[in-house]
Design goal:
It is built from 10 helices and 12 strands. It is an alpha+beta fold and about 325 residues long.
Length: about 325
């Protein structure tokens, strides 16, 4: 039996689980290998896989040694992105060693879309055996999957070239929103207070921060983390990028926005919650509190943060950035 047919059988078994709508096996570079479920076109599969690959790779970068899965939640669906971990068999390990990927659990991942009321954690447990069989088939086949070369026609080439056109447009009005730069002193104080209360509520909290557009930190708290404070800027930028890409993936699949993201690791959880145009991100250890309780606590603080950010946006109205009005009649010679 051909490898693609074997994988299709296992994916179909996953599709048979209650609430699962579709599943796609993808290479880390975003190249889809096999899929099952309802899809509109090949382009849609490629677009979803590229977005899921971007999310997966940032998740691996944030948690390189203990990533278990990434769960994206919205009003219409849940999306699970999980790596295929290597099976622990001596004979297979020899094959992995020959292929140079013995310690690489991130070469392939699966993306599963399910109904919003489905417990994807349970589905992940139910599919573990199928995922192991898929990984075993991939290893024993010895095949490598190369993405197809893209051919561009003249229209697409011209469209790409137009993207490099940097000619200034005199009629272009640029608006700078103070909201994108800073909060008022009152709002900043209230945000810090919310994060402080959150840190007292969660004993095993490592860090929490609020990032505005672009991934810039507006407020933060560092508790039981070994992370240097400076590293939070990098984590913030990547977390904001993950959330924006998840929004794209959710829209491609279900025409919905992402509400929150859970990155489940062996020893910790990372939550990324959307709060208006910003995100509320936190990392929490697994030793002292269960996931179910955390999922009840987080929305309470997310609502408070969302209300404060909405208030900040209403207070600070966008102003027109006009260099002529700023300089007046000053002539630079």
């Amino acid at each position: 039996m051909h490898l693609h047919e074997k994988i299709k059988i296992h994916l179909d078994q996953i599709k048979q689980l209650k609430g699962v709508e579709n599943a796609v096996l993808t290479q880390r570079d975003g190249n889809p290998i096999q899929s099952t479920g309802v899809w509109f076109s090949k382009d849609e599969i490629f677009n979803v896989c590229s977005a899921a690959s971007a999310i997966f790779n940032v998740g691996v970068h944030l948690h390189p040694t203990d990533l278990k899965y990434i769960l994206i939640e919205g009003k219409k669906a849940k999306i699970l992105i999980a790596p295929l971990n290597n099976p622990l068999h001596n004979s297979l390990n020899k094959l992995l060693e020959q292929q140079g990927i013995l310690n690489d659990n991130h070469e392939y991942f699966i993306a599963i879309t399910a109904l919003p009321n489905v417990n994807l954690g349970g589905i992940f447990l139910q599919t573990s055996e199928c995922l192991k069989k898929i990984k075993t088939s991939l290893i024993t086949s010895g095949e490598t999957f190369k993405p197809p070369l893209i051919r561009f026609n003249d229209r697409k080439i011209q469209h790409i070239l137009n993207g490099f056109d940097v000619k200034e447009n005199d009629n272009l009005n640029l608006k700078i929103s103070p909201f994108s730069i800073s909060f008022s002193e009152t709002i900043s104080y209230k945000l810090k207070k919310v994060l402080k209360d959150f840190s007292l509520t969660i004993p095993d909290l490592k860090y929490a921060f609020i990032s505005i557009e672009g991934g810039f930190i507006a407020s933060q708290v560092l508790k039981n983390s070994e992370q240097p404070k400076e590293n939070l800027d990098n984590i913030s930028a990547m977390s904001y990028s993950v959330f924006q890409t998840a929004n794209r993936c959710s829209w491609l699949l279900k025409k919905m926005n992402t509400d929150n993201i859970l990155i489940d690791c062996n020893h910790k959880f990372q939550f990324i919650n959307g709060v208006g145009r910003s995100i509320f991100c936190t990392e929490i250890g697994k030793n002292k509190q269960k996931l179910g309780l955390l999922r009840l606590i987080l929305p309470q603080f997310s609502k408070k943060i969302s209300a404060l950010i909405k208030m900040a946006a209403e207070i600070q109205e966008p102003r027109l950035f006009d260099i002529k009005s700023l300089l007046g009649d000053l002539v630079i010679k």
